[in-house]
Amino acid sequence: MPERDDEEREFDLRWADGAEHKEPSARARMLAARWKENPPGPVPFRGDPDHVGSGRRSWVSTAIVLGCVAAVIVLLGYLNFRAPY
Q1: 53 and 61 in contact (C-beta within 8 Å)?
Q2: Is residue 66 within 8 Å of residue 58, measured between CB atoms?
Q3: What is the 3-state secondary structure (H, E, C) of 22-51?
Q4: Contact, 24 vs 32, CB < 8 A?
Q5: Who wins on pLDDT, 34 or 43?
Q6: Dihedral of CA 20/25/30/34: which sign?
Q7: Dihedrals phi, psi of 48, to nearest 5 degrees
Q8: Does residue 5 sit in helix, strand or coil?
Q9: Count of the separate structural domains present in the chain
Q10: pLDDT tens for residues 3-33?
Q11: Domain of 14, in residue numbers
């Protein structure tokens, strides 16, 4: 019986994918209705680098992550060194 369900599901997916007209998603319909009344302004291809974030913050977070990884590696090495064989 499970084989038959899989075959029917596959048939339904092929039938749905082959449809001539596909209805847009609810979000696409909502945005189309909103933009009909109030169209969005032009947006540059790349955002301003000022809005990406502060360069200092990214380096601090990177240093913290790398420091934690190094501490875990050292701790595991120390525990492995002290383990009795």
Answers
A1: no
A2: no
A3: CCCCHHHHHHHHHHHHCCCCCCCCCCCHHH
A4: yes
A5: 34
A6: negative
A7: -65, 140
A8: helix
A9: 1
A10: 556 666 666 777 777 777 778 899 999 999 9
A11: 2-47+56-82
